[in-house]
């Protein structure tokens, strides 16, 4: 009979492994191996952990040593490459390995349901098609696309490639044809394609499945049912799925034969996880490509400043797609409407209304973009100045008129709209500002016969509703589309010739130094939805109209000229002068407590724990939204011009932080995307 000590990583905040005893049932029993999943007792529960080592002895007294309940033998062990990826993520983002590795796995694996695992394997055998990488309905590429696809396919070893293509330039087609050649070159190769948001996966998945009808495709994102996520994860882990499509969580999936990584819309902030392990899927994908010595493609019409700098310095190979893929399709003309001269009525200027009217007459589609959902950001009393503040947050409650509710978008508190002012009793309460619901109401009044559709987080709460709404736009059943950032990227609306951007100016005055970068990307992306097909005879030229009070702002000048290069160069120079990323590396320590004083006191204590050369520890300050759900929040920014120096500091600092006895909840974010 065999007996070993098994070291297991568990999903706990404790930064060490747990020792268990494994006893074989017979002399022929196979000992556990590193990378297997094990069901073990933990307190009063049974949990699934990851076997990290198998040894013959332990320092744990035999009376306290507990036995492994079972080893998950149905699944091949997770590879050393995958374990190294999780170890790197744990080290870089300063989290225990168990908190990184275990949540990456499907819930049905972590709760150890053998029956569910058996069903998943049976479903795989029935569902997965033969491995044929032949792509059907393959269109001819234009010259720049051919050069880009050829460069990707011919890349040797670790090769980070920045594919900078204007909206509608055919980046997706480059991805697919490069994928075909990678899959054909090696019979068991796998390709991972990342997209920033769940609502972008159905369209791309449908395209991939139709183009590769005999190729197994697995999709991974948080919107899947647990059984489906389990089957797709197993398809990737066993190598049966040759193409793995997913959102940021897919970057940590087990893909043993990974040969190419593609990151679409690489600039998108959605690639940064904002809770739990706050990792950047884009950055981990690049590290994973380096680890495996394979190419990684970062595609965008508006690359992140960090990626652009790498392209400028030669660290990334830069490929350009300067023209639209469809013959005779051109970039839309961008025109600024000065709202100081053209005063808006109900949020719309006369030139914008006239442009929408023209598209309706010609049977073309229009998109009005406003990245603010609800009816109005705040309800106000003109008599006494009362505002609809959230009683639990330092923010306003947003008016949702169709539901007759006030709703806080931070803590989700909902209240009925008051019949009169709670302070003075005035019954004439007025909405201040505009959201997508109010824009929809105004358009319905102006164009009562038009087919108007609003797509935002409120109108697409039900599962599948977002895709159903987008499908109706694609079928031409919508004349005017109103949307937030949900419709700003990745969608190919064939009949859309006009984009109207209602109120983008607020981002110009944000405290966040990344706000201008995000606004530029947003304007370029949403504007790129227009004119993706050749202009029809007698039809309208594609056009983007931006209503602004600041038409002379350099950002808008770059948008009008479709000049990302100039904008990025100016932004990099500004960041260099201000010592901001990518020329400075940052970490952010956030604290939450019942009182703001408690949160700030903890951060002051944290700041005094350790002093280190080349490290700048800034003063603790309250967060912009200081209170959320009656919890006070503050933050402490730590900076360094050297990434290794910052990482070395954090590795020494974290044990000191964990040793502080406090009721304050705190978390550390490395490379924060918002401050």
Q: What's the short story on this structure?
A:
The protein is of the alpha/beta class and 675 residues long. The protein folds into four domains: 3-77, GIY-YIG endonuclease, CATH 3.40.1440; 126-321, 3-Layer(aba) Sandwich (Rossmann fold); 333-375 and 434-573, 3-Layer(aba) Sandwich (Rossmann fold), CATH 3.40.50; 585-670, Alpha-Beta Plaits, CATH 3.30.70.260.
Features of the shown structure:
single chain; 675 residues; alpha/beta; GIY-YIG endonuclease; Rossmann fold; 4 domains; 7-stranded parallel sheet; 6-stranded parallel sheet; globular
Detailed description of the structure:
With 675 residues, the protein is of the alpha/beta class. The chain has four domains: 3-77, GIY-YIG endonuclease (3-Layer(aba) Sandwich), CATH 3.40.1440; 126-321, P-loop containing nucleotide triphosphate hydrolases (Rossmann fold, 3-Layer(aba) Sandwich), CATH 3.40.50.300; 333-375 and 434-573, Rossmann fold (3-Layer(aba) Sandwich); 585-670, ACT domain (Alpha-Beta Plaits). Helix content is 30%, strand content 23%. The protein has 18 helices and 28 strands. The strands form six sheets. The protein has a seven-stranded parallel β-sheet with strand order 8-9-7-10-11-6-12, with helices on both faces. A six-stranded parallel β-sheet has the order 13-23-22-14-21-20, sandwiched between helices. Strand 22 (496-501), helix 14 and strand 23 (543-548) form a beta-alpha-beta unit. Helix 4 (114-127) packs across helix 8. The longest helix has 16 residues, at 643-658. It is globular and about 85 Å long. The termini are far apart. The model has no long low-confidence stretch (mean pLDDT 91).
């Amino acid at each position: 009979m065999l007996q070993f000590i098994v070291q297991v990583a568990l999903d706990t905040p404790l930064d060490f492994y747990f020792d268990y005893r494994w006893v074989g049932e017979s002399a022929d029993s196979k000992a556990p191996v590193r990378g297997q999943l094990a069901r073990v007792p933990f307190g009063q529960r049974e949990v699934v952990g990851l076997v990290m080592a198998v040894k013959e002895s332990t320092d744990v007294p035999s009376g306290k040593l507990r036995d492994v309940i079972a080893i998950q033998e149905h699944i091949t062990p997770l590879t050393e490459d995958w374990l190294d990826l999780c170890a790197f993520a744990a080290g870089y983002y300063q989290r225990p390995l168990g908190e990184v590795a275990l949540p990456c796995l499907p819930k049905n694996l972590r709760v150890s349901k053998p029956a569910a695992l058996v069903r998943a394997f049976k479903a795989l055998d029935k569902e997965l098609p033969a491995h044929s990488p032949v792509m059907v309905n393959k269109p001819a590429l234009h010259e720049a696309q051919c050069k880009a696809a050829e460069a990707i396919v011919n890349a040797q070893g670790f090769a980070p490639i920045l594919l900078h293509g204007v909206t509608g330039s055919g980046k997706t087609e480059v991805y697919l044809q490069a994928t075909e050649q990678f899959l054909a070159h090696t019979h068991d190769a796998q390709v991972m394609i990342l997209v920033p948001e769940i609502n972008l996966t159905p369209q791309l998945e449908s395209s991939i499945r139709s183009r590769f009808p005999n190729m197994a495709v697995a999709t991974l994102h948080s919107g899947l049912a647990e059984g489906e996520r389990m089957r797709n994860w197993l398809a990737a882990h066993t190598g049966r799925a040759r193409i793995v499509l997913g959102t940021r969580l897919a970057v940590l999936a087990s893909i043993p034969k990974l040969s190419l990584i593609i990151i679409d819309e690489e600039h998108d902030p959605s690639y940064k996880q904002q809770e739990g392990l706050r990792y950047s899927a884009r950055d981990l994908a690049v590290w994973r490509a380096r680890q495996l010595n394979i190419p990684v493609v970062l595609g965008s019409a508006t690359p992140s400043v960090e990626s652009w700098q790498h392209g400028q310095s030669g660290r990334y190979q830069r490929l350009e797609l300067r023209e639209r893929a469809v013959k005779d399709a051109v970039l839309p003309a961008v025109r600024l409407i000065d709202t100081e001269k053209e005063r808006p009525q109900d949020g719309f200027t006369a030139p914008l209304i006239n442009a929408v009217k023209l598209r309706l007459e010609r049977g073309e589609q229009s998109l009005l973009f406003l990245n603010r959902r609800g009816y109005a950001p705040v309800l106000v009393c003109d008599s006494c100045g009362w505002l609809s503040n959230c009683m639990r947050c330092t923010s306003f409650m947003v008016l949702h008129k169709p539901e007759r509710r006030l709703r806080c978008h931070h803590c989700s508190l909902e209240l009925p709209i008051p019949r009169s002012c709670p302070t003075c009793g005035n019954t004439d309460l007025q909405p201040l500002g505009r959201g997508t619901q109010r824009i929809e109401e105004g358009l319905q009044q102006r164009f009562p016969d038009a087919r108007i559709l609003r797509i935002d987080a409120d109108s697409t709460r039900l599962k599948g509703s977002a895709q159903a709404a987008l499908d109706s736009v694609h079928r031409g059943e919508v004349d005017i589309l109103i949307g937030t950032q949900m419709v700003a990227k990745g969608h190919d609306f064939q009949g859309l010739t006009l984009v109207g951007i209602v109120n983008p100016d607020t981002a110009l005055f944000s405290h966040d130094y990344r706000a201008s970068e995000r606004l530029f990307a947003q304007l370029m992306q949403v504007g790129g939805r227009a004119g993706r097909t050749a202009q029809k005879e007698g039809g309208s030229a594609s056009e983007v109209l931006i209503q602004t009070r600041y038409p002379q702002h350099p950002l808008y000048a770059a948008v009008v000229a479709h000049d990302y290069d100039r904008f990025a160069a100016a932004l990099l120079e500004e960041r260099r002068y201000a010592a901001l990323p990518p020329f400075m590396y940052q970490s952010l320590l956030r604290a939450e407590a019942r009182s703001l004083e408690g949160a700030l006191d903890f951060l002051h204590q944290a700041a005094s724990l350790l002093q280190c050369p080349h490290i700048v520890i800034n003063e603790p300050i309250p967060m912009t939204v200081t209170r959320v759900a009656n919890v006070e929040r503050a933050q402490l920014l730590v900076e360094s011009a050297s990434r290794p120096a910052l990482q070395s500091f954090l590795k020494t600092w974290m044990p000191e932080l964990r040793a502080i006895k406090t009721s304050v909840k705190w978390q550390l974010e490395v490379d924060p995307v918002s401050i």
